[in-house]
Amino acid sequence: MNKVIITGSNGLLGQSLLSLLLNEKNKYEVFGFSKGNNRSGREDFEYIPIDITDKKLLHEVIHNIKPNFIINTAAMTNVDDCESQKEACNTLNVEVVEWLSEVSKELNAHIIHLSTDFIFDGKKGNYKETDTPNPLNYYGITKLKSEEILTASNCNHTILRTILVYGQVFDMSRNNIVLWVKKMLEANKEITIVDDQYRMPTYVEDLALACKIAMDKKATGIFHISSKKLLSVYELAKQIAEVFQLDKNLIKPISTSILNQTAPRPAITGFDLTKTNLELQFYPKSFKDDLLKFKEKLE
Hints:
Elements: E1 2-7, H1 12-22, E2 28-34, E3 46-49, H2 55-65, E4 69-72, H3 79-84, H4 86-107, E5 110-116, H5 138-153, E6 156-162, E7 165-166, H6 177-186, E8 191-194, E9 198-199, E10 202-203, H7 204-217, E11 221-225, E12 231-232, H8 233-243, E13 251-254, H9 256-259, H10 274-280, H11 287-298
Parallel strand pairs: 1-2, 1-4, 2-3, 4-5, 5-6, 6-11, 7-10, 8-13
Antiparallel strand pairs: 9-12
């Protein structure tokens, strides 16, 4: 049986992974790492309340468990917060990854690490795994550094880059684009959405499945995980309104330059999914298909 540590087990992806892996208890023994109390609503795994930015404690606890796999979902992902709280961002997004790579080498464990489309500058879109990164903001810089640490460390690792993750789990500490648009439109509130940024959003259950496939195949290297069609964020919001039968006239377009966000965003990201299709045999669907699946789950 494989021992699997999930860092950030209270988060959106963390809780989704718990649900997926705990369905196969004969295959995985799961350990969840997060700060504070267990918020997953599940008791059928070993939850360890831990501050993973404490290097000594992190090494100690992982050495006691001796995992086969570590899925690192913990990160500071609020792009504007990363810009204004660089030290905290660097600790969680870079230093912790370095410590995890050290302990993985010592124990011969395999790390599955989450990265982002924000390592790219957004000048061309539909990025391949081999395209040259050029991050525009501090969040992207830290995630690129974390990738470079794993690549240089020679520990067994998989890097899954993803885009705009959404979904719902038992106890949510953070919002995501789909839930936010849905909530605002249900309250009959007008919202402004950028129409000059293009993305391929990722349903969290797809991302969790991709993590599991990468783990089961012991895939190594970098893979891109997202839905399969590039859409403007404005178009995404309109599709959310359509699927949930809400008033899309409440959605007003705005340009990035007027929005004045703290951290610069890449204009066009999106992934070429060829390598993911071929090597992981993972075939993402369109945003609309995923939304319909998500809607069913909410009903």
